[in-house]
Amino acid sequence: NAGVTQTPKFRVLKTGQSMTLLCAQDMNHEYMYWYRQDPGMGLRLIHYSVGEGTTAKGEVPDGYNVSRLKKQNFLLGLESAAPSQTSVYFCASTHSGANYGYTFGSGTRLTVV
Amino acid sequence: AQSVTQLDSHVSVSEGTPVLLRCNYSSSYSPSLFWYVQHPNKGLQLLLKYTSAATLVKGINGFEAEFKKSETSFHLTKPSAHMSDAAEYFCVVSQYNQGGKLIFGQGTELSVKP
Questions:
Q1: pLDDT-based confidence at B2, cuts 50/70/90?
Q2: Does A92 touch chain B (CB under 8 A)?
Q3: What contacts B96, CB < 8 A, 6 or more positions away?
């Protein structure tokens, strides 16, 4: 059981470069989320999706774009990376409705220099 | 809007003594509440969750939490701390009627002294 897989696990970018983070889940979950974790701030929601072809903004969406072309994949893009986007990124997924558990990926550590 | 406040950014206890990590929530309806733990450079692990069943919730590794609606609290406790409990703990509320979004508290770092 793979659960939620994030790739890559580590990445160093130069300011202005672009990249895509991939989140893949094999549990047929409808809902998927991208969070960023920064010291002292907990995890903050960037974007989320409630189904294939849908996306919505979270708490801190600026500088990021997302796509959910396939139900199992949720991509997070940085078009022009900035040092403020240095963070650890977590993907999560769950079934729709209340009382289901959430599965988190192991995280992607991104450094923008 | 829902929110979560963890009342202590850092808690230090001695091994074998009780642990109390405090969490208050704000919600306009009956919430689902969670506690997650994160060990250094690791991912998130679910400790326990409350979903409107029993108000005293038992989790893994001897942790438990009590949902108190009148106090809007969901404090995490453990009778006896182990060195391996040293980690960061997050209190989380779910907005299940808004795409199931999880709202995280800022985290409490637990240190355990020998």
A1: confident
A2: yes
A3: A97, A98, A99, B32
